[in-house]
Design a protein that fits this description.
The structure is a homodimer. Chain A is an all-alpha fold. Helix content of chain A is about 70%, strand content about 0%.
Chain lengths: ~130, ~130
Amino acid sequence: MATRGRPRRAEADAEILQAALAMLRAGGYRELSLDEVARRAGTAKSSIYRRWSSKAALAAEIVRREVPAPEGDDLVQAFDALLNGSMGGVVASLIGEAQESAETRAIVLDLLAPYRHAGDDLLGGILFRRLLSQ
Amino acid sequence: MATRGRPRRAEADAEILQAALAMLRAGGYRELSLDEVARRAGTAKSSIYRRWSSKAALAAEIVRREVPAPEGDDLVQAFDALLNGSMGGVVASLIGEAQESAETRAIVLDLLAPYRHAGDDLLGGILFRRLLSQ
């Protein structure tokens, strides 16, 4: 079977996600670069934008894949695990970027929606400590 | 009395603070530019850095001047007033920047220190809503 120079769409998406995850793990959100993701995935940058509107949108999808939405009742515990787990720094950075970008704010609201039934006051202490820990 | 082309240090600082406050009021933290502050204040940019280490440090001083540290017992109310008052957007932006900058994080921790005796859980709900409101 002939192969083309660039992988098909589903394969390209998987490569993009894998490359972006590796970059997030190595250097956090600040070091995530869509140019570098495209290079590592062997795709054009336009292939990223075909599916994700921004670096924030791509990072949020990775957070969702790494930390599945909570299913049980303990949303406070789940939120704590989200913010203090391996993707906690990425979530904190997205919340930070949301202060300057309405698009990122919408992405973050969507990402955190499953947790908000716990109530903002209950989640707030966790957020406060995560964002302002030394 | 002879005047010099540039105001003396105390005068220059006052001009810098005035120009930066006007910019924060007009366009928020994102629009604050030290180049533009220097231009409006009629000073060199080095005059800003002589006293403030960064844009964040200058903005934090303005927040302190606009919103004096709480004196009474109701720190939760004071924190709510800080985050939802005229400087609330600036504080939110500083917290956002703190996710990517250790220096800004130290500035924010210092700025919020007077409120933290209220307890992170009590302040957290206010922070959560301020950072993640639509």
